[in-house]
# Entry
Amino acid sequence: MTVRKNITMDEKDYLLISDYATKNGYTFSQILRNAAISFINKSEKMELLEYMNANLEYVNKEEQREIEDMDIDFHDLNGEEIKVQDVL
# Structure
């Protein structure tokens, strides 16, 4: 089944994508679909730390003080690594 969706974007973005698609033998839709799928796959494969570094800002000074007041031993490496989808 094919689904049709309308999107809104700046004309300069449209022209950039459209020009690239034409030069490389793709349709506009193929470029957007491939880019979206690639973005999703890349994001889902990120480790949690990579995801956080790419998408989150550093904590402000007040939040940092709260974390420090918890007296957490950050050198204790016992535990297991989790992926982004484990948290979502």
